[in-house]
Amino acid sequence: MGLRSTDNLGNQGHTMTKTAFREMLQKVDSNGDGKISTKELREALRELGLNYNWFRMWWNAWGAVSHVDLNRNKHVDGDREIERLIDYAQKKWGINITN
Ligand SMILES: [Ca+2]
């Protein structure tokens, strides 16, 4: 915790619905366990069109997981964590997520 990266991928203006965001998460959940790993979240960033170098992708994915992971299982899982991820994506990744 305590990771408050000021890193912003700068993809301002990208808008999607919460449903689309959740569907995107399901899509990157390659092993279908309902939990999003750091690796899967990197895929999610790519799906969102945030293509940066390997380190920045890794850093952003890791930062997101460590920020939203309430039960500390190193994965984004469950509604509360996904809601936090949606919030995080808006603040840190500049994605506008609507209801
Ligand atoms: Ca978790």
From TrEMBL:
Output the Gene3D superfamilies linked to this UniProt entry: EF-hand
Q: Which residues lie within the region annotated Disordered?
A: 1-24
Please indicate if the UniProt record lists Calcium as a keyword.
yes
Q: Which SMART domains match?
A: EFh (SM00054)
**Record flagged with keyword Calcium:** yes
Composition-biased stretches (Polar residues): 1-18
GO molecular function (one): calcium ion binding
Q: Where is the EF-hand domain?
A: 16-51
InterPro entries assigned: EF-hand-dom_pair, EF_Hand_1_Ca_BS, EF_hand_dom
Kindly list any coiled-coil regions of this protein: none
> Which key words tag this protein in UniProt?
Calcium
Q: What is this protein called?
A: EF-hand domain-containing protein
The species this protein was found in: Dioscorea zingiberensis
